[in-house]
Amino acid sequence: MKSEPKIVCLGGGIGTVQMLRGLRHYTHSITGIVSMADDGGSGGRLRRLYSIPPPGDLINCLAALSNAEPLLLELLKFRFKGGRWGRDDSLGGHKLGNLILVALTQITGDFNKALTEMQRIFRSHGIILPATNENVSIWAKTVEGRTVRREENIDLGKYPGKREIAEVHLEPEENSSPPEVKQAILDANLVIAGPGDLYTTILPILLARNIQTCLKKTRAKRVFVVNIANKPFETPHYQASEYLTAIRKHLQVFPFQSVLVNSNTKPAIPEKLHYSYVPIDRQNMQAYNCQIITADLVDEEFPLYHDPEKTARKLISLL
């Protein structure tokens, strides 16, 4: 390629981490924009205890882009023994990288400055940015009309009745994004949303007001990556088109020009995980007037995830 493409990844969970791991081999101009709706695990506990944005997904994305020496990278990812959903003031289950970001926030007096310093210290290959200035939360309605609050409860199905989500909402509804987020999307050659948990990772970042606006204005190639497998409680038995339907329902439009879907369903998913491959219903997807791209994208060693190299290669070929 004559020049390095400018790529933006929207999300924050393990799906975004996999994208960053693969795409970093093609460009230094890569920006991970991370949802601030997380309230579970180590990051959620620190969010409540110190009234800061959740650091967990930011640190995971930084680890994917870090050029630090191996021992420093291990420190960044190190997790103390104990349950991730322990007491907020307990050390057990915390990730050291999250704690370092909290410490840097107290040293610098500013979370965004601390995040910038983390990226310098750990020699980030690209840029990691929070999607919103506000410390946002989500709430959802189930198909039975029940209201469920907190990302952790929605994600893990911790509510009574039929555990299937119909819609999700961002609080506060009026929110803003850092100027660097808006500029990254407007300047990008390629903007990627997904893969990731549809209702607790992907839709919360797409519901951010400034991100919606920038997706409409940018000249970038916009691609939505459908999950490899359906997650219990979030997308049970979904076909590929139902991911597109959910996005259009929440945004009133489907803002992506292309949809990338895995076609390799040969690797066996362990039955104990209760996940299943997402079927490709091409005829229903065609109603969204977008380019439908199918390819072998699965990580054969752990077939819930996208293979970073396969997926990055396919995405780069779209430019």
Automatic annotation (TrEMBL):
Record-level GO BP terms: regulation of cell shape
Molecular-function annotations in GO: LPPG:FO 2-phospho-L-lactate transferase activity
Keyword Phosphoprotein attributed: no
Plastid keyword on record: no
Domain of life: Bacteria
Localization in the cell: Cytoplasm
One GO cellular component, as annotated: cytoplasm
Pfam families: CofD
InterPro entries reported in the protein's UniProt record: CofD, CofD-like_dom_sf, Gluconeogen_factor
Keyword line: Cytoplasm
PANTHER family named in the record: GLUCONEOGENESIS FACTOR-RELATED, UNCHARACTERIZED PROTEIN YVCK-RELATED
Protein family (similarity comment): Belongs to the gluconeogenesis factor family.
Function per UniProt: Required for morphogenesis under gluconeogenic growth conditions.
Name recorded for this polypeptide: Putative gluconeogenesis factor
Species this chain originates from: Candidatus Gottesmanbacteria bacterium GW2011_GWA1_43_11
